[in-house]
């Protein structure tokens, strides 16, 4: 048994809970620390509306890299919290297939009286099927939490299927019916902190207070030794596939950015993406100390510490830190030599810029960045002089 599998509950355990607790009001699922914040926030909202609502909070693994946090990350008071692996559910796939389509058809018949909420970053057909089977006569409602920048950029599309009828049928079933169809035709509500207004993404003021409340609660346990936030920049990395970056182009540009900051007397912290190990190996080259908070979302850290700035190529924190805390954020993707970046990532970078052009500053070149850093350094020096 892998270390990752220790303490992971089976789907039979989940089914027993559903069978023994017919009043369960929600089943929530998180993969990342940011998802967990969304789950806690959504549950807080549900508990305001339904005072005695009972529920289950689950941690599931990333499809490629496994678990990146455990159930202790939740702050909500769900009746049950545990890890579970949907990629190894051990259930009869043929029965699940037919149950799924029976579930879909049932949604177009007369609506049941009492809701049960399926909370997650995307619609979860497997949890919906289990709720449909083991919590009879309940109306299933999907509540979609924030999933980071890709959700707003529209880049969460599943990979196109390989050639062959079987592969196309699997794509239709899992990718289309299990996600797109549910989102467009069933009872789905958004619980994301941004909403679309005309052609821009703006703050969702109805939802934001719940995210802020969760972040404040989590930040009480955050402590970073020996830092002066107003004199510190944080480098937040991305989990890019190294095979799609030639000549370590991203590292090369980041070194120059960090060198400018270091030369102007700023402290640098490296906050790696949960699935990134590459930049950790190069932290000394970047003049960075490692921000050792693997399972803590950067937003939680920013709730407690107002840094001078945050730098990244396309991380969600560039948007959340600016909107939630008004911390200056800098996207440095335009510094990259495009010939060293795959078309896939160039499209992602372009989409990020089109979507969030109002939410973060896009650095034009190194001279532009150094000019900004000089102003920041001068401003801090003046502030320090006044205080002394």
Structure, described:
- The chain has 388 residues and is an alpha/beta fold.
- The chain has 2 domains: 208 residues, no CATH class; 159 residues, Rossmann fold (3-Layer(aba) Sandwich).
- It has 12 helices and 14 strands.
- Helix 7 packs across helix 9.
- The longest helix is centred in the C-terminal third of the chain and has 22 residues.
Number of domains: 2
Structural class: alpha/beta
**Mean pLDDT reading:** 86
Q: Helix fraction?
A: 40-55%
Low-confidence stretches: none
Distance between the termini: 59 Å
Largest sheet: 6 strands, parallel
Shape: elongated
How many helical elements? 12
Order of helices and strands: HEHEEHEHEHHEEEHEHEEHEHEHEH
SS elements, strand count: 14
Strand content: 15-25%
Q: Rg to the nearest angstrom?
A: 22 Å
Strands of the largest sheet, in order across it?
3-2-1-4-5-6
Descriptors for this entry?
Rossmann fold, six-stranded parallel β-sheet, 2 domains, alpha/beta, 388 residues, elongated, 14 strands
Detail the topology: elements first, then pairings.
Blueprint: H1 11-20, E1 24-30, H2 33-49, E2 54-59, E3 80-83, H3 93-106, E4 114-120, H4 125-134, E5 138-145, H5 149-153, H6 165-185, E6 188-191, E7 194-197, E8 200-203, H7 208-219, E9 232-236, H8 249-263, E10 267-271, E11 289-290, H9 298-304, E12 309-312, H10 317-325, E13 329-331, H11 343-356, E14 361-362, H12 366-387
Parallel strand pairs: 1-2, 1-4, 2-3, 4-5, 5-6, 9-10, 9-12, 10-11, 12-13, 13-14
Antiparallel strand pairs: 7-8
């Amino acid at each position: 048994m892998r270390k990752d599998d220790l303490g992971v509950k089976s789907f039979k355990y989940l089914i027993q809970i559903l069978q023994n607790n017919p009043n369960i009001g929600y089943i929530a699922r998180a993969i990342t620390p940011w998802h967990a914040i969304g789950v806690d926030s959504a549950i807080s909202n549900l508990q305001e509306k339904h005072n005695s609502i009972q529920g289950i909070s689950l941690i599931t693994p990333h499809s490629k890299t496994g678990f990146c946090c455990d159930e202790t990350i939740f702050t909500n008071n769900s009746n049950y919290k545990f890890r579970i692996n949907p990629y190894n559910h051990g259930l009869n796939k043929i029965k699940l297939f037919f149950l799924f389509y029976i579930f879909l058809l049932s949604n177009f018949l007369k609506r049941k009286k009492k809701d049960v909420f399926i909370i997650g970053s995307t619609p979860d057909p497997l949890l919906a099927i289990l709720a449909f089977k083991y919590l009879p006569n309940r109306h299933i409602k999907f509540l979609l939490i924030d999933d980071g920048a890709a959700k707003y950029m529209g880049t969460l599309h599943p990979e196109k299927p390989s050639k062959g009828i079987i592969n196309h049928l699997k794509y239709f079933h899992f990718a289309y019916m299990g996600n797109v169809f549910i989102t467009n035709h069933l009872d789905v509500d958004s619980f994301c902190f941004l909403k679309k207004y005309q052609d821009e993404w703006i703050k969702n003021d109805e939802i934001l207070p719940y995210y802020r409340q969760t972040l404040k609660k989590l930040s009480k346990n955050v402590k970073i030794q020996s830092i002066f936030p107003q004199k510190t920049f944080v480098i937040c990395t991305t989990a890019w596939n190294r095979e799609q970056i030639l000549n370590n182009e991203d590292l090369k540009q980041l070194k120059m950015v960090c060198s400018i900051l270091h030369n102007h007397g700023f402290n640098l912290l490296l906050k790696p993406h949960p699935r990134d190990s590459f930049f950790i190996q190069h932290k000394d080259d970047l003049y960075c100390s490692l921000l050792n908070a693997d399972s803590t979302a950067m937003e939680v850290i920013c709730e407690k510490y107002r840094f001078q700035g945050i730098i990244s190529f396309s991380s969600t924190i560039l948007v959340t830190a600016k909107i939630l805390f008004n911390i200056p954020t800098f996207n440095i993707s335009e510094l990259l030599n495009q010939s060293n970046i795959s078309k896939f990532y160039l499209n992602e970078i372009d989409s990020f810029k089109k979507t969030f052009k109002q939410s973060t500053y896009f650095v034009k070149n190194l001279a532009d960045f150094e000019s900004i850093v000089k102003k920041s350094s001068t401003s801090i020096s003046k502030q320090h002089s006044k205080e002394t």
